[in-house]
Each structure stands twice: as C-alpha cells, then as structure tokens.
C-alpha cells in the first residue's frame, strides 16, 4: 500500500514540475530573449543548437538542483557559469522591462534624448558590480 502512495506522489511531483517548467520556458520564449540573442549575434543558422541548449540547460538545472549534485570543475568553471548565468539573467530582465515599456516611458519622462546606450550600460554595470560585491562578501558565510 505504501508503494501506491509513493507512485502517486511521484506522479504529482512530475506533473507539477512539468507544468512549472513549461510556464518558465513559455515566459522566456514569449518575451523573446532567445530570438533576440540569436538576432544580435547573427547566428540564425544555429537555431537548433540554441533550442537544444535551452532544453538541456533547463533539464540539467532541474536534475542538479533536485539531487544536489556537485560538479568539481574548479574555479574557472564557476566563473564561466556565473558569467553566463548573469548575462542570461540580464538579458531576461532587460527583455521583460522592454516588453513592459519601462525604459521608453522612463526616458521620455526624464527628457533623455541622447546617451541611452551609456545609461543602459551604466545600469548593467551597476547590477554586475552589486552582484559581484554580494557574492564576494556573503557567499563565504554560507
């Protein structure tokens, strides 16, 4: 009788996880992060590789998170992963803000006509430096 409960809970967990991951992937696709990265990098011929990378990253991220797996690849792998995750998170945040028209409304209200690239770069640099400061000072305590 106990194994029926375990199978039922496993099915509920799998169904719930599938629904949440489908929602996250549809959110990423709907705001256009991946197509924008493909367009900006002019690598449309490699679209299958991008799709596979997104799916593989989501699936492996879930497996590593669920089973608390650790990959001993050293400091450079952590730096590369952190940089890649930061770039993707930044692209996701900017795409979401752009969909919501946050930046055009803010720039119009402040009367900003020139230097938009510098403003965006400064915001991204501030976010990156803040994240680096946080992780350099707080991750050692965990």
Describe the structure.
This protein is mainly α and 142 residues long. 2% of the residues are buried. The protein has helices at residues 2-30, 33-41, 47-66, 75-99, 102-110, 116-138. It is built from 6 helices and no strands.
In short:
The chain is an all-alpha fold and 142 residues long.
Helix-strand category: mainly alpha
What's the order of the H and E elements? HHHHHH
**Span between termini:** 41 Å
**Beta-strand percentage range:** under 5%
Radius of gyration: 20 Å
Care to count the β-strands?
A: 0
Tally of helical runs = 6
The averaged pLDDT comes out at 77
Major sheet description: none
Low-confidence stretches: none
Shape descriptor reads extended
In which range does the helix fraction lie? Answer: over 70%
From the structure above, extract its key features.
142 residues, 6 helices, 0% strand, extended
Helices and strands, with pairings:
Blueprint lengths: L1 H29 L2 H9 L5 H20 L8 H25 L2 H9 L5 H23 L4
């Amino acid at each position: 009788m106990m194994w029926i409960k375990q199978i039922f809970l496993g099915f509920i967990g799998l169904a719930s996880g599938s629904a949440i991951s489908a929602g996250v992937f549809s959110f990423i696709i709907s705001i256009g992060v991946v197509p924008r990265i493909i367009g900006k990098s002019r690598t449309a011929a490699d679209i299958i590789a991008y799709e596979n990378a997104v799916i593989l990253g989501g699936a492996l991220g879930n497996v590593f998170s669920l089973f608390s797996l650790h990959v001993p690849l050293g400091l450079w792998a952590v730096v590369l992963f952190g940089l890649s995750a930061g770039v993707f998170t930044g692209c996701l945040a900017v795409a979401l803000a752009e969909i919501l028209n946050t930046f055009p409304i803010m720039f119009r209200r402040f009367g900003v006509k020139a230097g938009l690239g510098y403003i965006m770069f400064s915001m991204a640099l501030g976010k990156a430096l803040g994240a680096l400061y946080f992780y350099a000072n707080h991750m050692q305590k965990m």
